[in-house]
Specification:
Rna Polymerase Sigma Factor, Chain: A; mainly alpha; RNA_pol_sigma-70-like; RNA_pol_sigma-70_dom; sigma factor activity; sigma factor; globular; transcription regulation
């Protein structure tokens, strides 16, 4: 009976967080189809390994960790190829004038190393607490705090550099 209850909890967790999970996968691979594949693989892994979940209350962070690990595995396997979808091509194509500062932030965020980007995405875009981010990334809370600080510093510096380049 516990197994059925846990499966129902997982199904609800996946359903309630489907957009967030997709966005999380997309933040790693930056390709719609690959992100969808990662989400599908993550759901399969979660369903087939549900017995490994010791605390059903930690379902969301457990599932997010599966998504992060599946995304990282995907990146390792496909290291040699960095594809772009049509939206990204249009964003970077010449003749497109970028007048939105959030696009600059998006580009700058994508240029960050994965360890910093992960922390920013989970903390600010997925609205997880520092402790939850640490659990998802399987890191110490202080490590996450340090990475978050460093990531924000990098973003500030890069955004400032981009702004000063536009002015000159």
């Amino acid at each position: 009976m516990l197994n059925r209850k846990t499966e129902n909890l997982l199904t609800r967790c996946i359903t309630e967080n489907k957009e967030n999970v997709y966005r999380l996968a997309y933040s790693y691979v930056r390709n719609k189809d690959d992100a969808l594949d990662i989400v599908q693989d993550s759901i399969y892994k979660a369903m087939t390994h549900i017995e490994l979940l010791k605390n059903p209350a930690a379902m969301k962070s457990w599932f997010y960790r599966i998504v992060v690990n599946t995304s990282l595995d995907f990146l390792r396997r496909n290291k040699k190829v960095d594809t772009m979808d049509h939206e990204m091509i249009e964003t970077y194509s010449p003749g497109t004038e970028d007048v939105y500062s959030d696009m600059d932030l998006k580009r700058t965020l994508e240029d960050l190393p994965v360890k910093y980007r992960s922390v920013i995405v989970l903390r600010y875009f997925e609205d997880l607490k520092i402790e939850e981010v640490a659990e998802v990334l399987n890191e110490n809370v202080n490590t996450i705090k340090t990475r978050l600080y460093q990531a924000l510093q990098l973003l500030r510096v890069r955004m400032k550099d981009d702004t000063s380049k536009e002015i000159t």
